[in-house]
Every structure is written in structure tokens, then in C-alpha cells.
Amino acid sequence: MTSDDPRYGDPVFLQTEGDHGSPIGDHHRYRAMAEGDALSYPYAPYNRRVLTPLIVKALPLDAEEGFYALTFLSVAATGVALFYALSRMGLGGALSLAGMFAFFSLGRAAEYSLRNFWLIDPLSFLLLALCVWAVASRRDALFAALLVLAALNKEAGIFALALFYGLRATGPLDFPLMGRTVLVGLPALLVLVGLRLGIPAEEPYYYSYLLTHVVPKRLEEMTFPEPFGTYSLGTFGLVGGLLPSCRSRIKRVEGWR
Questions:
Q1: How many CA atoms lie within 13 A of 171 on its CB side?
Q2: Predicted local confidence at residue 111, as pLDDT
């Protein structure tokens, strides 16, 4: 449902219990942040995902055009960033190109983002791909800066920090790298704390709710048998078929670490 849909803002489509009657759908919330004051939106956790709405607000376009332009550029740039990241990791031109097209085949990434272009996730995809490239290029300061931007866009962006350790560790317990990982991730962690303390919400948002309600529901939906392709092919696209060849290739190019 886009902003010009007659149902937008219709009371029938408003949540009224536990959500202060705010418009239903994440995209409505991000639009409200982009068109209003992004730093004073009252509904958590959306009000702490400020980067995409601030960029859209700064563009010389209306909100709909701004979100679509940012989404399109982010999706396209993510594929390019993945190509260079995989190339830097030594996968070679053919597999790097395959990795780029594998991303474009993901139903829950490229296709869904372009169809529901009001969301913040496309920019998160781009920042994550750039984080992989920064790790592979051993540009720690750049990785730290990208991680800050990822945290400003969505709190889940902080989990990209695991890539810094996972892609470089020489063993399960690489203690020198552990210390450097903490140092590199500290600015983004401080940003997350600052967002939570600096942008109040009318109601507290508990991540325990996701663990106790949302996650079990998603796992139940993914239990086989499923409608063919609903989650497996629809989500992973070409990636499932490419993983075995990528795995054997990665084992032969460990030298980039």
C-alpha cells in the first residue's frame, strides 16, 4: 500500500491497541519520519532508525520519490559492492559476478525492496556489503565508520561486527582480534546507546517480545512441508545452489585474511 492509496490513514487500517492508533505498516512510520521530525517520532523501535528518513528528507524530492530513489540506488549499489567484496576475498571474477546476481535473485532482498520501497532495509543491505568489502580490504577505520552508519539505519546493523571477527579469525579463539573487534565496534555501540537514551518513546519496546512471540511464529511458518518456494527458494534464490561451489573455492583462497 503506497501513500496515495485511499486506505492510507483510514481508521479501519489503523492499529488501536498498544500502538496509539498509529498507521499500520512499517512504511507508514518511515514516511512519517521523513516528512516530519525524524528525531522526535514517538514510536519505538522505528524512531531510532533515523538514517534513511533523514537522507530522504534531505533529498530535493517528495517522500515517495525520495524513498524510491534511495531504494533503487541502494539495491543496485549492493550488488556492485558484493562483487568487489567477493573479488577482494579472492573468489575470482566468475564467482564474484555469480554472487552479485545471486543477491539480485533474492526475493526478500531486491524484488521485495523495489516493490515495497518505503523501507529502510535496502540501505542496510548496502552498508552490510560495504562492511564485508572493508573487512576484506583490511580498512578497519572505514569498517568502524560503516558500522556506525549501519547502526543509525537499524539497530540490527550492529551484528555486522561479527563479520569483522568471523572473516579474519585464525581460530575459534583469536584473542588479539577479539580486542580489536571490541575497539572497532565501540563507536557503533555508543551510537546505539545514544539513540536509545536521546530519542524517547511513548511506550517501551522490549526485544524479549521478538524472542518469545515473533521468532517462534516465523519458525513455525518455515516448518516443512511448506508451499514450495515460499521461504526456501523465495528467500534464498540462487544462493542455495551456489554455496557448495563457493565453499570449495573459499577453502582454496584463504590467503586474503
A1: 4
A2: 87
Query: Which residue in the block uniquely carries the three cell numbers 563457493?
Result: 246
- State how far the Cα of 75 lies from the Cα of 100, in Å rounded to an integer: 11
Residue 211, helix vs strand vs coil: helix
Instruction: Answer whether 134's CB lies under 8 Å from 146's CB.
Output: yes
The number of beta carbons lying within 10 Å of the beta carbon of residue 144 is: 19
Question: In this predicted model, what pLDDT tens digit does every residue of 172-196 receive, in sequence order?
Answer: 888 999 999 999 999 999 999 999 8
Single pTM value for the model: 0.79
34 pairs with which residues across the strands? Answer: none
Domain boundaries, the chain: 11-256
CA 61 distance to own-chain centroid:
23
C-alpha cell at 112: 521485495
Q: H-helix or E-strand containing 195?
A: helix 175-198
Residue 78's identity, in one-letter code, is: T
